[in-house]
Fold this protein.
Amino acid sequence: MDPVVIVTLVAALVVVFLFAATVRIVPQARRYNIERFGRYRRTLQPGLNFVLPVADRVNTKLDVREQVYSSDPRPVITEDNLVVNIDTVLYYQITDPRAAAYEVADYLQAIDQLTVTTLRNVIGSMDLEETLTSREEINSRLRAVLDDATGKWGIRVNRVEIKAIDPPATIKEAMEKQMRAERDKRAAILHAEGERQAKILTAEGTRQKDILEAQGAQQAMILRADGEAKAVELVFQAVHRNNADPKVLAYKYLETLPHLASSDNNTFWVIPGELTEAVRTVTSAFGDQSTAGRPQPAQAEEAADADTPRDGRVPELDAGSAVSLDAATAADEAGKQAAAAVSDAKAEAEAAMSPQVPRRGQTSGD
């Protein structure tokens, strides 16, 4: 082979090698730290970059995107001397590639150890219950401490979250019993409140029912009383409009008298003292109008005195009867005699209304 060709090929290979060693292509969101003869020179930005071959070399390649770092569970002692295992999640981002590469040897290990020590300081001032309910406060204090410490490392801590807090098994069992007791207590309170509301509503319903029934009964009694009052008023007006005399009133009195003994429960009743006077009034009213005159006041008083007993007892139904009857027999006998008197009065009234029929107590010669 011609030596010229060999030299040309060697020169071409050297040029290609030098070009490859000169050009550096950096991906997006990446940063390359360049050292020249072992000393930091500059940080390559994303895109096409040129460096001196052999003299410049890439020391570290860093990712500047936000990254997540999850630590292992670490034992932490609370203020009430309980050991809990806490693991955290850290969100961080590299802001200065040079500081991240040259200010700290291993920034992840440094962040992890700083997180553990800060967490122990924070949790050591809290009891277990406060630790379980104060996650936001713990996160804020951790972030403040980590952000202040990692600033010189070229790292910004965006967020710190507590992933889990695991108390001991005995504490978990006690907490479960406490929560169960609280739930039972709330269930008992809700049940009692429900029964209370049910009784209150039942009482309100019963009260409303009694009020409505009482109002209904009141309205019914008022309407019934109004009806009776109107009926009595109509009867009273009819009696006064027709100018009823004592004869009609005596007749109605005798007509109503038998109803006093119509009930089966009546075992004893008193015949009014006005019965004889009413019978005499009806008899004289429907008797002979031409011969029978109205009794004189003196005679009426004597008859009333004769008919009225001096000792206040009930007058006898028959003057010739001397037998003393019991209460039931006296009631039946009085009812029969009253009915008979009413029948006689009706017969005399009909006879008085018919002139062709001789009236009772008159002869044909009259």
About this structure: Residues 169-241 form the longest helix (73 residues). The longest strand covers residues 83-94.
